């Protein structure tokens, strides 16, 4: 069986054939200019990672690497059936929703003495024990408990068979981003975020890539050297960043797709329109990065350190922060374990 295209190749392949989603080059250039003006800000540094993850253990602690493994392994499908019915988790005096409710639940469990970041523990955790860890402080439970339990215990067993920690599991990849993504995907089934489009096997690897980027964020914050080919990573194709890209004019949806999403129709994982949204989002950010690098080279006379992962790390909180202004642009809804 042929290997799937890489996420970057997949993005280009989909964007060149897409029917309902279009990458708008004028909008792309405007976003590149916007990021160019912010290029020296903390948002585009590793220290920005800790700001994005205020609930993560200190990067200096051994728990930090396993904490990101646990959260990234369960990092999927937080959108509520109804906007007013959200899962909420309170931790250290603050209440969180969405992905941050998962981070809060894991950190709350640690504060309560549950060894949730230990692979020996989470490889064998029962569904009832995980339900206790992920319990909601509102009337709405976190969705997909069964799938989160399966993903976490399966991943934990893989770690136990490979040295007993995520650090040991990844050790032979020698801080090579491409090898790290491939190794995670080959060994942990829930990270195999792939589809078939126009007869071609393609990949997005959203969670595998974000896991590598999170590990990089911790290493950078520790001053432990870096992952030199982090530019291999693309943006992390989810449901929040595409909404932001449409809002900023870099991505366009057809009238038919916009109508479908506004009607609240669920898109199934791997179907054409869902693949086009994710694939075109990847290619859109690649084009933003291309124009940004060009701007930095032409105006500053130097190379640019801002890669696609850092652009994603900027766009995701931007979309979250401006969610009221972009409420007229629907996010696409897909219940799956990949994002």
TrEMBL record:
Q: Which reaction does it catalyse?
A: queuosine 5'-phosphate + H2O = queuine + D-ribose 5-phosphate
Give the E.C. number(s). 3.2.2.-
GO BP term, pick one: tRNA modification
Q: Which domain of life is it from?
A: Eukaryota
Q: Which UniProt keywords apply?
A: Hydrolase
As one GO molecular function, the record gives:
hydrolase activity
Family listed: Belongs to the QNG1 protein family.
Q: What PANTHER family has UniProt attached to this entry?
A: QUEUOSINE 5'-PHOSPHATE N-GLYCOSYLASE_HYDROLASE, QUEUOSINE 5'-PHOSPHATE N-GLYCOSYLASE_HYDROLASE-RELATED
The entry's protein name is Queuosine 5'-phosphate N-glycosylase/hydrolase
User: Which source organism?
Assistant: Phoxinus phoxinus (Eurasian minnow)
- Output the lineage of the source organism: Eukaryota, Metazoa, Chordata, Craniata, Vertebrata
């Amino acid at each position: 069986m042929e290997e799937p295209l890489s996420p970057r190749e997949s993005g280009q392949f989909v964007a060149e054939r897409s029917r309902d989603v279009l990458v708008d080059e004028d909008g792309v250039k405007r976003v590149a200019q916007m990021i160019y003006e912010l290029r020296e800000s903390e948002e585009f540094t590793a220290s920005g990672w800790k700001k994005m993850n205020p609930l993560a253990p200190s990067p200096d602690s051994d728990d930090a690497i396993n904490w990101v493994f646990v959260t990234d392994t369960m990092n999927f499908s937080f959108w509520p059936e109804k906007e007013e019915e959200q899962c909420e988790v309170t931790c250290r005096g603050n209440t969180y929703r969405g992905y941050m409710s998962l981070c809060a639940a894991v950190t709350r469990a640690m504060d309560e003495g549950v060894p949730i970041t230990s692979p020996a523990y989470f490889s064998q955790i029962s569904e009832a024990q995980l339900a206790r860890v992920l319990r909601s402080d509102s009337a709405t439970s976190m969705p997909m408990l069964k799938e989160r339990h399966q993903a976490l215990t399966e991943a934990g067993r893989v770690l136990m068979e490979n040295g007993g920690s995520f650090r040991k599991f990844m050790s032979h990849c020698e801080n090579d981003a491409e090898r790290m993504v491939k190794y995670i995907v080959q060994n942990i089934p829930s990270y195999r975020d792939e589809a078939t489009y126009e007869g071609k096997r393609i990949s997005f690897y959203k969670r595998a890539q974000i896991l590598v980027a999170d590990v990089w964020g911790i290493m950078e914050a520790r001053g432990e050297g870096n992952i030199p080919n982090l530019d291999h990573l693309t943006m992390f194709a989810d449901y929040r960043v595409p909404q932001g890209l449409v809002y900023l004019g870099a991505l366009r949806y057809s009238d038919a797709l916009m109508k479908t999403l506004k009607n609240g129709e669920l898109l199934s994982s791997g179907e054409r329109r869902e693949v086009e949204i994710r694939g075109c989002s990847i290619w859109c950010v690649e084009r933003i990065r291309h124009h940004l690098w060009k701007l930095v080279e032409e105006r500053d006379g130097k190379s640019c350190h801002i890669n696609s992962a850092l652009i994603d790390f900027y766009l995701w909180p931007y979309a979250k922060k401006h969610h009221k202004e972009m409420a007229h642009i629907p996010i696409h809804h897909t219940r799956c374990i990949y994002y």
